[in-house]
Write a structure and sequence with these properties.
The protein has two helices and ten strands. The protein is an alpha+beta fold and about 190 residues long. The protein has one domain: Sandwich (Jelly Rolls), CATH 2.60.120.
């Protein structure tokens, strides 16, 4: 009888761990095949001819149109630099240097990928239409007006930041040399 109980417990643990890690790899998968820089995660193998199985599973699960290896790379952040989940009701400052790329965009999106910007005609920031600081960039997001580069957001709930670096051939694919991305700081929260 003891053997059967141990066998059932072993099978339950094995199935839980197996299905749990598979689910994680397909829904978030930041530990598998992703470049991690602070709160940012990018899947550099997605744009290659033969991506690793985890990148392929992430791509299949999200169904997003991905950039080719020579076109650029996309980074996603679901938390701020302190590790707290991003909330629409809070205000955030994205500050620091952006890696070398011909063009980049930064979008605040809901979990399904739609923009949460409240300003008509302004859905995201891009490298051509912002004011730069001597130390890089300061991009503000939130429901309350903020000085400088500000993108108003709406509603409540979680969101993600999506930074896409275009024409960054040295950054995409294996051997990526991305070392820094802007920090995400929570400025105010009701």
């Amino acid at each position: 009888m003891r053997f059967i109980v141990y066998l059932i417990i072993m099978l339950a643990v094995a199935l839980g761990v197996g299905f749990g890690t598979s689910y994680y790899a397909l829904t978030d998968g930041r530990l598998f095949g992703a470049i991690r820089i602070g709160p940012w995660a990018g899947w550099s193998e997605i744009g290659t001819e033969n991506p690793d199985p985890y990148s392929r599973a992430y791509l299949a699960r999200t169904g997003l149109l991905q950039l080719g290896k020579s076109e650029g790379i996309r980074f996603v952040a679901r938390t701020d630099s302190e590790g707290d989940r991003l909330e629409r009701a809070c205000s955030y400052a994205v500050t620091g240097q952006t890696p070398g790329a011909t063009f980049w965009t930064l979008l605040a999106a809901d979990p399904e990928g739609a923009t949460i910007a409240a300003a008509p005609g302004l859905s995201h920031f891009h490298s051509e239409r912002i004011v730069y600081d001597p130390d890089g960039v300061t991009l503000n997001f939130g429901p309350q007006m903020m000085p400088g580069n500000w993108l108003p957001t709406n509603e409540t709930g979680p969101f993600t930041f999506v930074m896409t670096l275009y024409d960054a051939a040295g950054l995409a694919g294996g051997g990526s040399n991305v070392s820094t991305l802007p920090a995400i700081e929570r400025v105010a929260c009701p």
